[in-house]
Specification:
Layout: H1 2-20, E1 50-54, E2 57-64, H2 73-84, E3 86-92, E4 102-104, E5 110-113, E6 122-123, H3 125-142, E7 148-154, E8 163-169, H4 173-191, E9 201-204, H5 215-220, E10 228-234, H6 243-266
Parallel strand pairs: 2-3, 2-7, 7-10, 8-9
Antiparallel strand pairs: 1-3, 4-5, 5-6, 8-10
Helix pairs in contact: 2-6, 4-6
């Protein structure tokens, strides 16, 4: 019985060694199937734009949805986040969709010419995808409920060249007065002895009437998601020759304002 079983044993050993030969260096290995493609990978965003996210203080986010189309707001937004410890969500490169200069509005699911009124905005599939991606970026930066959201914008309109406009969400008139007074005090302290820096007026909703009230983003965009939000419109001078000065002022203001909100919440 032992002799008759030997050839079978030898044959089995030969087949085993032959199969192992594919694992020896210089030999072809048997191809194996790779992992199946992931279905949760997001589709590429339309256009040439990109999004960046940095995490910071939970629930506190600085956003710059028009980082490059509102010139230098990406730089200002990132610097404000760095100095305050807030998280950040910055979008760049979503402008110039056509020869007319249309852009994705990013913080809401529409596209339009920069500065166009809300009734001139158009909802498109591309605009919706970009908005949803930006909204996810804000959620990631917030790491939970969005308590304080600050959006940085810029404009070149002559009517607002001498002022900073702040549209608000979740603020009463008393809250707006506090925001306005605090920022004015910080501005005046900073400008003391610096005559080269222009003294921009501070307009805060609902105390003041604004040209840029951010109504579309409040109703259909990211601004309406936050418990308290500031939509900050900076004129050209605050983003160019006086950018460092007004970034300093805004950073100081945001740190103090966030502390006031925290203190008030603890006292309830």
């Amino acid at each position: 019985m032992a002799r008759r079983g030997a050839p079978s044993l030898v044959l089995s050993l030969a087949l085993f060694l032959s199969g192992c030969a594919g694992l020896v260096g210089g030999k072809e290995s048997v191809p194996t199937a790779g992992p199946p493609p992931r279905s949760d990978q997001p589709a590429p965003l339309p256009g040439q734009g990109s999004l960046s996210v940095q995490k910071g203080r939970p629930g506190h986010v600085v956003g710059a949805p028009h980082g490059t189309t509102d010139s230098a707001t990406d730089v200002i937004g990132l610097e404000l986040a760095r100095r305050t410890g807030f998280g950040s969500a910055v979008a760049t490169g979503f402008g110039k969709l056509d020869a007319e200069g249309r852009r994705y509005n990013v913080n809401r699911p529409t596209e339009s010419l920069a500065g166009a009124p809300p009734n001139a905005e158009t909802q498109t599939e591309g605009a919706r995808r970009v908005f949803e991606a930006y909204s996810r970026s804000v959620t990631e930066a917030s790491q939970g409920p969005l308590r304080v959201y600050v959006e940085v914008h810029g404009n070149g309109h002559q009517d607002t060249a001498g002022r900073v406009e702040i549209a608000t969400v979740g603020l009463s008139k008393e809250d707006a007065w506090q925001v306005k007074t605090l920022l004015e005090l910080i501005r005046d302290a900073y400008l003391r002895g610096r005559p080269e820096t222009p003294r921009l007026e501070i307009f805060v909703e609902p105390l003041d009437t604004l040209r840029y009230s951010a109504s579309a983003s409040k109703s259909d965009g990211v601004l309406g998601r936050s418990e308290k939000a500031l939509h900050v419109e900076l004129p050209k001078v605050a983003r160019t020759t006086s950018r460092d000065a007004y970034t300093d002022m805004l950073a100081d203001f945001l740190v103090q304002w966030a502390d006031l909100l925290t203190t008030a919440a603890r006292g309830r």
